[in-house]
Amino acid sequence: MSILSGPASFTAASGSRQHAWRMLRESRSGMAGLLIVALFLLIALAAWFGWLGQDWSRITGGRWDPPGSGHWLGTNVLGQDVFDRAVYSTLTAFHVGLVVSLLSTLIGAALGALAGWFSHTWLDETILWLKGVLDSIPFYLFVAAVAFALKGNPWAMHIAMIATFWTGTGRLVRGEVMRLREREFIASARAIGLPGLLILVRHVVPNTVHLLLVQATLVFVAAIKTEVILSFLGLGVQDGVSWGLMLAESTQEVLAGQFGNFIAASGFLFLLLMGFNMLADVLQDAFDARETAQ
Asked: Which numeric CATH code is attached to 8-293?
């Protein structure tokens, strides 16, 4: 196919997406994962727009009220509804996951594409060196350092995760770009005199979308888990509500025979991560099958 009559790169990328969607619809686990994620997304949107009509921080009962019609999972030591706090923590999880996955994937895609296209040059070596430095630093030590340097900044946790999570995406995209640049349609684009960066943006990057989609999903999951761990350790969410903060509170409550915070936070977290993992597995299998077929 001529590069002028319709780039093969777009055809391949579009075919991969169609194949992935078809496999997703045919997979029970994939559709179940999609429905779980969609349900949690609706919960997060409802919390964002105030459709739930109740402030999670409001005291609505006494200390450690038992589960009942007024409080499905009881109340905490302050008299706040445990279920409401778990629901509003969904918004925190989606906010962190979306911001971190979007920005780290974009940064990783850009740097990985440049490193792959200009492989074995000073630019590639610089990007690989930066990746190696970031990968060599213990993650939670790095987060603590960033949190200390940006003391009081609510975005410190996001910045720390973005600065480290892009490296995995960058590595994958670099390898894929190095493979794609040897393909026939790239040689055709070079032959008609298209600039190198234009070829990279228009014909190479679209063929990495399948990698970026799966990687963004995995980073989303990793960001949520990391936020929960950091909040549990006191390095994450400070002014707000989070499953990690609820789990931190539960360490003392469990000793007193109160399990509401633990059950709510761990249950919500488990269901959301299970949904994302089921969805990511099907997408990965779909794109791998497509690549093998090609």
From this structure: 1.10.3720.10
Q: Which two tokens stand for residue 73?
A: 């999972």
CA atoms within 13 A on the CB side of 224: 28
Query: Could you tell me the pLDDT band of residue 287, with boundaries at 50, 70 and 90?
Result: low
CA atoms within 13 A on the CB side of 30: 15
Distance CA 188, CA 235 (A): 52
DSSP string covering 171-222, please? HHHHHHHHHHTTSHHHHHHHHTT--HHHHIIIIIGGGGHHHHHHHHHHHHHH
Q: What is the pLDDT of residues 161-190, one digit of tens each?
A: 999 999 999 999 999 999 988 888 888 888
- What number is the average pLDDT over the span 31-52? 89
- Grouping H, G, I as helix, E, B as strand and the rest as coil, residue 76 is coil
End-to-end CA separation in angstroms for the chain: 16
Reply yes or no on whether the pLDDT at 219 is more than 90.
yes
